[in-house]
Amino acid sequence: MSKKIDTRYAIGRKEANAYNTQELRDAFLVDTLMTQGEVVWIYTHYERFMLGSAVPTTSALTLETIEDQLKMPFFTARREVGVINIGGPGTITVSGTRYHLDNEEALYIGQGNEEVIFESDNASNPAKYYLNSAPAHHAYPCKKIGSTDANILHLGSQETSNKRDIKQLLINTVVDTCQLQMGLTRLHTGSVWNTMPAHQHDRRNEVYFYFDMDSESRVCHFMGEPHETRHIFVANEEAVVSPPWSIHCGVGTGSYAFIWGMAGENLDYDDMDKFPPSQLR
């Protein structure tokens, strides 16, 4: 079963500057992910990027096409999909091949795989598959990225409250993709700031999915133009869609991790326009 939750149309920077808090949340916050027993998708008009989730419990879930948006006989007919599991262990079957994913392991699903089935090993501790998808022009092989396969960056410091480890899971030095990139960032104990210096990707969009937070904690996610910033308070397992014109960074009231996903003009991870704190307004 598959359930399309929402469509997000592209919004310009001038329009966003006039939004009040609720309008900003309606346009850029995604708070419907990780629904048990369903495949959920949000289709955005930024690079035709999609984000979603699959949380199988007692029954397997199948990745189905979305007729209104894709107009394709199956989901990956013209798309690639990235999956990162943030829950209990599970298995994803792709065209007859089974891939077992533990917590924080990833799977790349290439274009042209008609059968994709999500399962959990234990319904009481289900796998929680976070999904990103982008249009694809070439069929690259499926590949699992295990805990020892990721490229890991160690950035920041305790002095600036942003010591963090970045797991580059679906990037071009780890797996071949058309345009999709994904990874996972975890803050060290006592560090709360992510993604400093803040930056824009004028040649791609990005989505931040925050997780591993307690029910009372929040991340204040900053967005907007460097000279005209806005903020959105984000709860556990919620995401923020970041347009190409927007900066992105955040600060948490407690410990948290987040998954970043990108698609766009190129696969250069360092293609970003940075803005130090002194330039932000």
From TrEMBL:
GO terms for molecular function: 4-deoxy-L-threo-5-hexosulose-uronate ketol-isomerase activity; zinc ion binding. CDD domains: cupin_KduI_C, cupin_KduI_N. InterPro entries: KduI (IPR007045), KduI/IolB_isomerase (IPR021120), KduI_N (IPR027449), RmlC-like_jellyroll (IPR014710), RmlC_Cupin_sf (IPR011051). Binds 1 zinc ion per subunit. Its cofactor is Zn(2+). Zn(2+) binds at H199, H201, E206, H248. Pathway: Glycan metabolism; pectin degradation; 2-dehydro-3-deoxy-D-gluconate from pectin: step 4/5. Keywords: Isomerase, Metal-binding, Zinc. The keyword Metal-binding applies. Its EC number is 5.3.1.17. Pfam families: KduI. Gene3D superfamilies: Jelly Rolls, pectin degrading enzyme 5-keto 4- deoxyuronate isomerase, domain 1. One of its GO terms (biological process) is D-galacturonate catabolic process. It catalyses: 5-dehydro-4-deoxy-D-glucuronate = 3-deoxy-D-glycero-2,5-hexodiulosonate. Belongs to the KduI family. Catalyzes the isomerization of 5-dehydro-4-deoxy-D-glucuronate to 3-deoxy-D-glycero-2,5-hexodiulosonate. This is 4-deoxy-L-threo-5-hexosulose-uronate ketol-isomerase. It comes from Alteromonas marina. The gene is kduI.
